[in-house]
Every structure is written in structure tokens, then in C-alpha cells.
Amino acid sequence: MDDDANAPAENGRAVSNRSIEIATAAIVLLFGLLFLYTSYKLGFRWGSDGPQSGFFPFYVSLFLCIASAAVLFRGLRGTDRKSREVFVNAGQFKQVLSVLIPAGAFVLGIQLIGIYVASALYIAVFMRWLGKYSWLKSVLLAIAVSVVSFMMFEVWFQVPLYKGLWNPLAWTGY
Asked: Based on the structure, what is the number of domains in the chain?
């Protein structure tokens, strides 16, 4: 069984466990501090009528900050042998990004052009790019899936889904 995580990096480029650990701990610590501050502003004490609005979020954020600070400290020390091992090499990271970036664009697309149009574009691009299908098959199947979804939710179930800020389907009357 090959252990890809410990395989040599392509072209000498790789990200170590230590780098990922430090970056993740720092990001979680920043979010924890932000939540801690907002919980403090809401009120984190026990009032006469029970806990204030920020009581539970404050203590959850406090524990989150303590845990992430401990992980960050351990990562910065970097004395552990496993911290030097490769977390991901360039090829693996490229594969992850080939899915992650379009997924992020899809989420943004839902906000701007709605779920039906964004889904059609997402399906067509993925089928063509990663699946290597012809443009004709990709576009036809993407449109078919979106039309069936539209009919199912909007017409049959009468459950409107988000059409986006620009609502390119306004001409349908939905």
C-alpha cells in the first residue's frame, strides 16, 4: 500500500504537516478571537434572568482559542518528527484545487444568477473539464438536470429556490 502523503514532492514543492498545522491553528485562533469579542459585546455573564446572549458562545470561543493556541504553539516549536512529513505535494494540491475553486465559483454563482443557472453551468463545465465529455453532451445534460429540478421544485412542489441577485429566469414568471 503506497503512502502518498509521505511520497517525495514533485519538483521539490510540497507543503509540510507543520505548515498546515500552523496555518489552520492561526485561522481558527483568529475566528475564535473574533467570536470571543462579539460574544463579550453581547454580554457573557449570568444575568438576573439567566445567561446573557453571549454566555455560551463566549465560553465555546474561549475553549476554541485555548485549543488553537496550544496547537499553534506546538506547531511553531516543530520538534515533532511528523511535523516535517509532507502533508500534500504539488500534484495532490492541484487535484484538490481543481474541485475546490469551481465549487467556490458555484457558490458565488448561486448568489448572483441563482441555483438553476449556476447548477447548469457547474454541471456542464465539470462534465467537459474533468469528465472529458463532448460539449454537446455536457450542455444537454446540464440543461436537462436544471429543467427537471426547476419543474420539480418550482412547479410540482411549489417550493421556490433562490433565483439570484440578477434572476436570469425572471422571464419565466417564477
From this structure: 2
Tell whether 119 and 73 lie within a shared domain: no
Neighbouring residues of 60: CB distance < 8 A, sequence distance ≥ 6: 35
Cell, residue 27: 485561522
What is the pTM assigned to this prediction?
Answer: 0.64
Domain of residue 80 covers 4-84
Residues 62 and 118 in one domain: no
Tens of pLDDT, residue by residue over 114-149, are: 999 999 999 999 999 989 999 999 999 999 999 999
